[in-house]
Amino acid sequence: MREPTLFLCTLCTLAGPALAGAPLVTETADSLALGDCELEAAVTRERSSGLPTLRSSNVILGCGVGAESQAALVHTQTRFDGSREQALRLSGKTTFAAPEPGRAGWGVAYAVESVKLPGGSWRSEAFDLVGLYTRELAPGLLVHANLGHSHSRSARQDSTLWSLGIERIDTLTLAADVFGDDRDRPGVSAGVGYGIGRGFSVNATLAWQFSEPRMRGVNLGAKLEF
Question: Is residue 2 part of a domain?
Answer without folding.
Answer: no
